[in-house]
Amino acid sequence: MKENVSNTVTSTGLIKRMLIGGIIGLVLISLFLISADDADPTWNKLWFIKPLIITPIAAAMGGGFHFYVDKIFNSNNCSSILAFILGTLGFVVALWLGTVLGLDGTYWN
Length: 109
Fold this sequence. Notes:
This protein is mainly α. It has three helices and no strands.
């Protein structure tokens, strides 16, 4: 039997999509932290490390979700558009949740 190459999961594609998601998360949270006001003096001196770690990890998981949704619905043009919309929505939700978890206890208490 001939294997359908378009639906196989390669670790290279997954890693690439997760790296892109993680970089997007890191850039967005870094821009937010740079543009934010001064920190509350009662917070720990290294309070900014938590959002810089959690947000990119959550965004990378969102990138992985986008990859798998794309692979599941990759059969025709109509479903590939639906897969892109659903994957992007999942990525945005993962990025939002990672931002909330990263900033919990500091900016979003």
